[in-house]
Amino acid sequence: MQTDSIQPFNKSMFVAILWIVLALAWLTGCSSGSQPETNPEVISLPTIFPTETLTPSITHAPTITLTLTTGLGLTSRSVLDGAVMVIYVPAGEFVMGSDPGTDPYFWGAESPSHAVYVDAFWLYQTEVTNAMYQMCVEQKACPRPDANRSSTHKNYYGNPDYDNYPVILVSWVHAVSYCKWAGGRLPTEAEWEKAARGEDGRLFPWGNSPLRGDLANFCDHDCPGNERESGLDDGYRDTAPVGSYPAGVSPYGALDMAGNVWEWVFDYFVPEYYKVSPLENPLGPAFGTRRVIRGGSWYNPASGIRTVARASLTPDNALGTVVFRCAMDVP
After folding, report:
1. What is the pLDDT of residue 331?
2. Whether the predicted pLDDT of 310 surpasses 60
3. Alpha-carbon separation of residue 8 from 11, 12, 13, 217, 243 (angstroms)
4. In sequence order, what DSSP letters do the residues of 102-169 get, joined into one string?
5. For the chain, which domains are there?
6. CA dihedral defined by 15, 20, 26, 30, rounded to 10 degrees?
7. In the chain, how long is the greatest CA-to-CA distance?
8. Phi/psi at 268 (nearest 5 deg)?
9. The pTM is what?
């Protein structure tokens, strides 16, 4: 009976084949290991945020399929949280800051005035409301406000009577969480100021005319603050429903950019930053311990609700006079 011949063992060939097998296994492992699993419903913070501000992965807000339209003064319902209108602020240069010779209320950190170029962006037309923020809390994407009360209302957050009022007692960290969940970010200080004052260097969103009770929510005749506009009445003792002062609208259509509540922006606060600030899309100092708030509140007189007024808080601070609105990049 004829049998197949058995080839003698070839050690060199065996070693070569073994090396090829090991190499293929190593390459396959590297390829699979270099692509970590991702959740398509989780979004990352925009690159504008430095590493230390990253928060845990947050589920995206429910979306509504609408197209944002670019054009001066145009608004559209947000495609992200379905609850807020957004305005378009075109790219261009504006005058940022003020100087003691031209600003009758000059505080010090507003100087020097300087020309800044900002890319186009979208901005929420109003401050984030209690009802809007509650959506984020219910989806476990935002921490609750530090308390449910306001200065004059014991039952404020979570009370349907105040759904359209600005959410308060939220820190900078709260604000970042919400804007991330909604698919946006906090505006930079430069973006906020451009949206508030336009390109003509005005001190208030409505222009340079004197303050009136129908223009903003400020420290009026019955305000508990030490500085008040005693001859004026804005109709509210503390916060007002968002959008209550259409006569005080900014050149681009933003409401409540003066008074009602201060607004968190992205930047760290350094009083002398304007002396070294980049002239194009400034992001604020690289480091700091405090974040900028802008716009003033119901607790401030005219000097505090100027478009150029700068103040700051530590990012974990949450007050009854501070809220936020979100911005979004234009693709």
Report:
1. 82
2. yes
3. 9, 12, 11, 96, 90
4. T-TT--STTPSPEEEEE--EEEESSPPBHHHHHHHHHTTSSPPPS-S--SS-SS-TT-GGGTTSBP-S
5. 42-331 (3.90.1580.10)
6. 160
7. 121
8. -70, 155
9. 0.79
